[in-house]
Write a structure and sequence with these properties.
The protein is an alpha/beta fold. It is about 50% helix and about 15% strand. The chain contains 8 helices and 8 strands; from the N terminus they run βαβαααβαβαβββαβα. It has helices at about 15-25, 30-40, 45-55, 60-70, 90-100, 115-125, 165-190, 200-210, and strands at about 1-5, 25-30, 80-85, 110-115, 125-130, 135-140, 155-160, 190-195. It has a 5-stranded parallel β-sheet with strand order 2-3-1-4-8. A hairpin with a 5-residue loop joins β5 and β6 (about 135-140). The longest helix is centred in the C-terminal third of the chain and has 24 residues, at about 165-190. The protein binds adenosine monophosphate. Adenosine monophosphate (AMP) binds near residues 9, 85 and 162.
Length: about 210
C-alpha cells in the first residue's frame, strides 16, 4: 500500500501517519523529518534547507525531490509507505508519479485531512516533539506525563523553531497557495479521500482506517 497524507501543517498528518504506518507495518516517510535530520547533522542539504524552513517557506523542489528519490530507492519501501509532507505542490506531485511509474509503482490512495484554521493554529503552537524518537505531544491536548519528557522513550521534548505563531501563519499561506491544485490533481485521478480532521486524534484515526 502506497499512501499520501495531504493537508495543512497541523492537520494531523504526522500524528496519524505514524499510527497508521505502525499498525499496517509500512514505512512513514516524512520529508519534514528527513530535512530536520539533515539540518541537525549539518549536511550540505541541511545547510541549504535551513533558512527556508525557519522562514516557513518551501525548500526548493530539486533539493527535496532528490532527497525523496534517494529514500525511495532503498529496498525497504517494498513493504509500502505513507508519505507525509510530500508532495507540497503540483510539480512535486507530477514528479512523484513519474518516479514511481519508472519503478512500475503508483500511489494507491491520497488521504486529505481537512482541518480548520483556528484548530490548526491551536495544535501547532502547542506542539511538542521528542528529540529522540520524534513522537508528538501537545501542551494541552496531549500533555506528556512528565514535564518536557517523552512518555515513550524518556527523550527531551522541544518546540520546533517553525511552530511559532508568526511562522505558522506563513506556512499556512504557502500551503493555501498550492493546496487547491494538488487536491484537484488527485481528485481528478480518482485517488483523493477527504476526511474532516478537526476532531481529536482517535476518532479521526478510526475514519482513516475505515477508508483504507
Ligand atoms: P513539515 O514537518 O512537513 O511541516 O515540514 C517542515 C518544513 O520542511 C516545511 O515548512 C518546509 O520548509 C520543509 N518541507 C518539508 N517537506 C517539503 C516539501 N515536500 N517541499 C518543500 N519543502 C518541504
Amino acid at each position: 500500500m502506497k499512501i499520501i497524507f495531504l493537508g495543512a501543517p497541523g492537520a494531523g498528518k504526522g500524528t496519524q501517519a505514524k499510527k497508521v504506518a505502525q499498525k499496517m507495518n509500512i514505512l512513514h516517510i516524512s520529508t519534514g523529518d528527513l530535512l530536520r535530520q539533515n539540518v541537525t547533522n549539518s549536511t550540505s542539504l541541511g545547510r541549504q534547507a535551513k533558512d527556508f524552513m525557519n522562514k516557513g517557506a518551501l525548500v526548493p523542489d530539486e533539493l527535496v525531490t532528490q532527497m525523496l528519490i534517494d529514500r525511495l530507492s532503498r529496498p525497504d519501501i517494498e513493504k509500502g509507505f505513507i508519505l507525509d509532507g510530500y508532495p507540497r505542490n503540483l510539480n512535486q506531485a507530477k514528479k512523484l508519479d513519474e518516479v514511481l511509474a519508472d519503478k512500475n509503482r503508483s500511489i494507491d490512495k491520497v488521504i486529505y485531512l481537512d482541518a480548520s484554521e483556528p484548530v490548526i493554529i491551536q495544535r501547532i503552537t502547542g506542539r511538542l516533539v521528542c528529540r529522540s524518537c520524534g513522537a508528538n505531544f501537545h501542551i494541552k491536548n496531549m500533555p506528556p506525563k512528565k514535564n518536557m519528557v517523552c512518555d515513550h522513550c524518556g527523550g527531551e521534548l522541544y518546540q520546533r523553531s517553525d511552530d511559532k505563531e508568526e511562522t505558522v501563519r506563513k506556512r499556512l499561506e504557502v500551503y493555501r497557495q498550492e493546496a487547491a491544485c494538488l487536491i484537484d490533481y488527485y481528485s481528478n485521478t480518482g485517488r483523493l479521500i477527504k476526511i474532516k480532521a478537526d476532531d481529536e486524534a482517535e476518532p479521526v484515526l478510526k475514519e482513516i482506517f475505515a477508508v483504507i
